[in-house]
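Good morning N.,

You mentioned wanting to compare the apo and holo forms, so I went ahead and generated the holo version with iron/sulfur cluster. This is what I fed in:
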Amino acid sequence: MREVHVDAIIFAVENLFIDANINLSQNVIDAIKGAIDKEESATGKEVLRELIRNAEIAKEERLPVCQDTGLAITFVEIGQDVHIIGGNLSDAVSEGVKKGYEKGYLRKSCCHPFTRKNTGDNTPPIMHTKIVPGNTLKIIAMPKGGGSENYGEVRMLTPSQGREGVKAFILEMIKKGGPNPCPPIIVGVGIGGNLETSAVLSKEALMAPLGVRNSDPELAILETELLDEINRIGIGPQGYGGTVTALDVHIRMLPCHIASLPVAVNIQCHAHRIKEVIL
Ligand code: SF4
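and this is what came out, ligand included:
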């Protein structure tokens, strides 16, 4: 049994959220750069260049890539041979978020749903945990803005709607979002499981590296088809029209009930901020 002290978790979470908000990962920057050649609209190309410049300025001046520094979403994979000491995991992740948003001068965006009163420190974080084999603790930080999150949805389709019903739902959601999720977007899709697991799958799908196709050949084809059809809608970078509305589509799928076909869409904006650490 390997011991991991909560102080290490707090420190890691604090730094992950600061790093994620300031330094867009190279994978995202490369995808936006690659999109400049694919974009047919002159305005769209210019917007993509501006997004690259924005990411460079954020890095140089240690400023957030976007003013919406998001809700603090975390995925924690806990090795079954890890023993957390000095406190509990939830409090440690929460403390790390609180410290990171304070130290990094990141906007606190978490509030009471009705009164809209800000919680003041961007807690509580959203925390997804998984017990996995091994003796390490993997923490993924994904600050996510409201503009893109607002255009996600779960829908319980009927089994007869099948593959075409799933595609129609996803395209409907992209059209509904239009320019609001700050395109070029990344589309996470969760198919199967049940109501709540399809939503989590769609968020997990967003964690896949851009440009990497699904290992399941059928899903890889579906991802490619959807990316192509989304980019033919014409929303374009930041909604000015164009051929690059999405940088990528990623799908995750699980078996589901014989009477159901759950599908969830989670849209991510161009400020796709995600960082991870293994303790
Ligand atoms: S959708 Fe993304 S880029 Fe747009 S304001 Fe929100 S966090 Fe920023």
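The chain is about 40% helix and 25% strand.

Happy to go through it together on a call whenever suits you.

Best,
F.
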